[in-house]
Amino acid sequence: MLNQLGVSTIGHFTAGADLRTSQYRIVQLNSSGAVVLPTGQGIKALGVLLNTPNTGEMAEVGVFGLFEVVSNGAVSMAATGFNVTAAGTSGKAEQASSGDFILGTATEAAPADGGRFTVFVNPCPTPLA
Fold first, then answer.
1. Which of 124, 34, 33, 29 is nearest to 85 (CA)?
2. Which of 14, 31, 53, 114 is most buried, taking the most CB atoms under 10 A from its CB?
3. What are the average pLDDT values for consecutive 10-residue runs of the chain, which has 129 residues?
4. 8 Å CB contact between 63 and 56
């Protein structure tokens, strides 16, 4: 597993909440343009939080490229191409289902809950059919 490989894009945003325990979790922008954990299952995500900011501090977010993400539970790569989405408000990643926005594609099998795995982050602007 790697934090980032090759060509990756990292954005700098303001943390809209205490994210000190949310490194490698999926995040989104709130209505003020600040980074927060997801508001629900399968939301349109911004990317993956790479640091541990407190409210008002700079949040580094992996918005394109290979990044580690915290798993919501084991999923085999053989599943169905293994598109990744936000698993509710925890910011953990899980396999996307119909209607979910895709954050990216797993490059390896997801480990048990709380483990990390590598995802090619490339957010899709439309939900999975």
1. 124
2. 53
3. 62 97 98 97 95 98 94 70 89 93 91 91 90
4. no
